[in-house]
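Now read this:
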Amino acid sequence: MGISLDDLQNSEGFTTAEKGKFTWLPEPDAAERQFTVISVDDHIVEPRHAFEGRFSSALADRAPRVIEQEDGSEAWMFEGEVMPNVGFNAVVGRPVEEYSFEPTRFDQMRRGAWDITSRLTDMDINGVYASVCFPSFLPGFAGQRLQQLAGDTDLALACVRAWNDWCIEEWCAADPARMIPLQLPYLLDPEIAATEVRRNAERGFKAVTFSEAPHLLGLPSLHSGHWDPLMAACEETGTVVCLHVGSSGTSPTTAPDAPSDTIGVLFFGYAMFAAVDWLYSRIPIRFPDLKICLSEGGIGWVAGLLDRLEHVRKYDSMYGTWNDLSISPADTFRRNFSVCAIDDPSAFLQRDVIGIDNILLESDYPHADSTWPHTQQKIAAQIAGLSPAEVERVTWRNASELFNHPVPEAVQRDPNAY
């Protein structure tokens, strides 16, 4: 079972937070840096000006824009639709009891959520050297919202290009050594999407965010072959396909009357579902060099899934899907997929099963799951049993190699060197 994220954020009883109340915690001290860290899952709250000057004159009046509503909240307006969650869970720096799908004003969220200079400062406080940043509520985690609301394909493509231009020309250009460019995909035509990926690779983009389950967005499924032109372009250019939990526009849930905690507990679950769907679509078989990264799904489920894949392998002839292949689904997973730990202490005990080269870290700034400003402390507690070589792999080297993002030798040796 699943629930729409739009329905979820409109649910009055999802949290006990008092609507409109916000409190700032004391400014934290900078973390002691024990490790050089690359976080492969953080988020951007698009600033008011993100789309300004990035549309043709014919489409400029239709660009997304921020409006102030009668109740004082700020919202995005696009194609006649008002989208009220400006911050969408940008809650770092506030008490946990205030966490919700607000804030609804830019001045009610930490400035680092939407301002790149402040973001770099908050990365310094947290001890994070480099970051991959996903969009948030306005585009949707896979860029689907803007494209599905657009009244025509010209506007949809213009929105995708405008966001990508802003991301690489402003957000990542502020410090290219520390910001790893991730693009929105064009979802309405896989051939155009492939062309965009090739063009963006030449501009320096290292990754593309894509839907974990496009069929849940009303798009062709992974099993249709529809997306092969896009996957071919990603393989050809080394562009990492990042699958963020919730990029299907839904979240796992149980009974309709179950408490909302169950959704929080199960949020990681779609990462496991996505892994199985992508494996058995045989996309990683058709494109063996394709790099897939499962973001915000944790890693605690991986060893169990690998065991299950090996178990079901015994019945290949019953199903037929994998009969003609010598490589197993489990080994395909280890070859093509990377997974991201955020708060998974027990999972590191199974690192040999998961594969130490497949494990990455994330801080999820500025969302409710974020470990900011304690990411360094969390890492230290969770990887205490790892060897120095394993620590290097997990904290930065795996991400550096996956995203082709070199880390200066001085920073490799000393996390205080930046």
Observations:
- The chain has a mean pLDDT of 93.
- The chain is about 35% helix and 15% strand.
- Residues 153-171 form the longest helix (19 residues).
- Residues 43 and 134 are 5 Å apart (CA to CA).
